[in-house]
Amino acid sequence: MITLSVYDPALNAVEARFEVPQQDGSWLHGVRVLQDTVLVKLTDCFFVVDRALALVGSATPLPEPVKQALSGNGFRGAYDVSVDLTRIDYTDQDGLHLHDLDSGQTQRLSGHIQVGDRLLPQAYILTPHFSRNDEAVIAMLSGYEGCYGLIALRLRDQSQPYVYKNPELYYGIGWMNARYPYADLKPSWSPAPPKLALMDLEALASSGPAPAHREVVLASPSEQQPIGYMEYLPLFNADYFVYVALAWDPDGAEEKHVYRIVRVDLETMQAETLLTIRAGTPYLRALTADGRVMFSYNFKRKIGFAITGK
In terms of Cα–Cα distance, which of 40, 34, 98, 37 is closest to 65? Predict the structure, then answer.
């Protein structure tokens, strides 16, 4: 059973819960937070709830091509829904597509990107998301044991897709149509000093020059180096970007790893360590408007939830 919850940080209490209705074989594909509602995406349909988690209207079944793309028959695709709930972008083994729910018409936007490398013949388009008020689609590109980069395509003029090549992207495309779903990092093992820069996706999907980056001012680069794995996705809102940093124990002892929850002020670009956690793996769950972070943590069989101070 999948449950959505609304948590009030001021009261430190759960205000509402919603049990997601699921058919046999259906599973949660993602959640997208809109201005006044929340879009819940399943593998057979999508629906909308308001901020009190009351169902708005009825569920919309996914078109058959989208359901087939999600079935994992040779290629497991992904999809997103526009804010007005009239269009679906999705990927399958043939590339990136746009489906109009009103007309029932499907348009192929791009094939997968041909790389031609011996170890990476082509980069597959993954995780498509609407951006720029649904005027563009941005997706991650698969790489050899990692990420090849990003692809951005403007829908209005159907321009040639823009491919941003960078194998050192911090995986972070989120469930919201936000400005900073991606970060660009130089890992600690790189010859260059550790560096984290946030990518402005508004520029990535525009007709202007190459995407703009805003470098984060790390107070302690060795201690505030992000974990670039999918399970440690960052969180972000209009004012903050939050991620998990990890300092490995030299001997590999799990109980001696040190995790840090780091918050970046998007106005000053200053990084601040909110909390240091030893012998417990934190996973970010929610970010409040005033910058507090709700997270879960586990170590062996001990599991819990907590929220940081301001």
Answer: 98
Q: Phi first, then psi: give them for residue 201, nearest 5 degrees.
A: -70, -15
For 37-62, b/e burial (b = at least 16 CB within 10 A) is bbbbbbbbbbbbbeeebeeeeeeeeb
pLDDT band at 95 (very low <50, low <70, confident <90, very high): very high
Q: What is the pLDDT of residues 212-271, one digit of tens each?
A: 677 888 888 878 877 766 557 788 888 998 988 888 878 877 778 899 999 999 899 999
Closest alpha carbon to 218 in 235, 237, 195? 195
What is the C-alpha separation between 297 and 244, in angstroms, rounded? Answer: 12
CB-based contact 54:41 (threshold 8 Å): no
Q: Which residue has the tokens 């909390």?
A: 275
**What integer is the mean pLDDT of 137-154?**
82
Q: Which residues of 225-260 are buried (b: 16+ CB within 10 A; e: fewer)?
A: bbbbeeebbbbbbeebbbbbbbbeeeeeeeeebebb
Maximum alpha-carbon separation in the chain: 59
Smallest CA-to-CA distance from 142 within 152, 132, 151 is with 151
Confidence class of residue 190 from pLDDT cuts 50, 70 and 90?
Answer: low
